[in-house]
Design goal:
Number of strands: 8
Radius of gyration: 19 Å
Largest sheet: 6 strands, parallel
Strand order of the largest sheet: 3-4-5-6-7-8
Structural class: alpha/beta
Number of helices: 12
Helix content: 25-40%
Strand content: 15-25%
Distance between the termini: 15 Å
């Protein structure tokens, strides 16, 4: 699907939060927090424009972590005192979820007013949320009866939000599910409360659209790191059963498994390759990354690809992976690499 809407210079949407936002949130002052967020979003839009990025996000500055757009707008969940294995606060579903207001469409509309570049929005995927918040002990007391039921309810909410975002002018939407790639491993481990089959069905419900206006891409990020070895049939099933336009894939380690994930991708799907590591401050060498991209171009048309960092820089606001300056240098590197790949044709 080679065209001019591949958003070559991409990032996951989660950027390092300014100290003013973290301080205002810690103080619990809603007015101060709103003022800090408003000013910080204006500044981060300017920052992305100076980088000549082909996507603009609000940095996920309005939320504590990458799931916040849902937890802040949807009832039925309760925050616990526990943490997940990756350091996030654990939430549980006490009832079937209900959206009380748009998840991200209102903030995306405000973002669009700040830039001529169509905004990008990232959301947690319904299968990820269902897999991590389903509590079987609550099933008999008003909670969802199964993780699949919870996932399907969340998929309807996410799907409605995607349609609303598109109507508001958003042209690139990314759903994040850090658990999906684990299912494609040759020796998969148990991940969350959803089976692979149920996860595929739930994600498919979320990304379906009857019509896609020109330039619209609905993407899925199935994980931030490739498994040690990929089961080709499972990877093909992943791509085949979830009708996403764009797959955001890890491609920063130079492993055979990363290439295998790309080989399994159908020709009619875009790929965004996470070519620089967002977890370490050291900058990759341009020749090293270009060699990996050249290898990708042997199995996938370069015109159907984009590049980005490997993951968000601050999926948990209080625990950024890099400093603001280290983040800037990584994003500059992505922009430089894009120029090597496509010149000035964006």
């Amino acid at each position: 699907m080679a065209d001019t809407f591949n958003y070559r210079i991409d990032h996951h949407g989660s950027l390092v939060r300014p100290a003013e936002i973290l301080a205002a949130r810690a103080q619990g002052d809603p007015e101060a927090l709103h003022a800090a967020e408003t000013e910080a979003v204006k500044e981060v839009v300017t920052f992305q424009r100076k980088l000549r990025s082909t996507v603009v996000t609000d940095g996920d500055f309005l939320h504590e972590d990458f799931r916040g757009a849902v937890f802040d707008a949807v009832s039925g969940f309760r925050r616990t005192d526990e943490e997940t294995a990756d350091g996030l606060s654990r939430w549980v579903a006490e009832a079937l979820p209900k959206a009380n207001h748009p998840l991200a469409a209102d903030s995306a509309s405000k973002l669009a007013d700040l830039t001529w570049i169509a905004p990008k929005v990232s959301l947690p995927s319904p299968a990820y949320l269902a897999a991590t918040t389903f509590a079987p002990e609550l099933a008999g007391s008003g909670g969802p009866s199964s993780a699949r039921e919870l996932g399907e309810a969340l998929a309807e909410i996410i799907n409605a939000e995607i349609e609303l975002l598109v109507s508001r002018g958003v042209r690139l939407i990314q759903l994040n599910n850090p658990l999906l790639l684990a299912h494609t491993a040759t020796e998969p481990a148990a991940v969350g409360a959803l089976s692979f089959e149920d996860a595929l069905a739930v994600e498919a419900l979320a990304v379906r659209l009857d019509a896609r206006p020109e330039g619209v891409r609905v993407g899925v990020c199935p994980g931030w790191e490739a498994p040690a070895a990929v089961d080709r049939a499972k990877a093909e099933r992943l791509y085949g059963e979830i009708p996403a336009d764009r797959w955001i894939l890890p491609y920063d380690k130079g492993t055979a498994a990363e290439v295998d994930l790309l080989k399994a991708l159908p020709e009619d799907r875009d790929a965004c390759l996470g070519v620089v590591d967002a977890t370490v401050p050291e900058l990759e060498g341009i020749d090293e990354v270009m060699a990996r991209i050249d290898a990708a171009a042997e199995v996938k048309d370069l015109e159907d690809m984009a590049i980005s960092p490997s993951r968000g820089f601050a999926d948990l606001a209080v625990r950024p992976l890099l400093s603001t300056e280290e983040q800037r240098l990584k994003l500059v590197l992505v922009e430089t690499l894009a120029r090597y790949c496509w010149g000035n044709e964006f």
